[in-house]
Amino acid sequence: MLHFGSIVSTLGVRYNVFYFLFNIKTNLIKLKIQSYCTNVARTLMVMPTQEMEELYELLLTTEAAVIEALKPGRPISAAYEAGTKHFGERKPEFAQYLVKNFGYIFY
Hints:
The protein has helices at 50-69, 76-90, and strands at 2-8, 14-19, 24-33, 36-45. It is an alpha+beta fold. The longest helix is centred in the middle third of the chain and has 20 residues, at 50-69.
């Protein structure tokens, strides 16, 4: 990973630009106004390969499977199991690279 530094604007917004290998660019914006702080990150694919596009599409359908599994009365672990099952059935060789969560729940 290469970090090309931070840019701080007059409003106190900090822009961090990171470049990763494999034609993927990640931007992170940090904002602090008085006592409120927030981060927004976006990942962009630049000239992706066919395999990268297929994996991205698979991640979108995996996300839909996770959301579909979030039903009242069901444990949160059911959503994780649905996501890993969906992804693993379609690309088992990449299943080992899935993260250990699909987001955060606050209740």
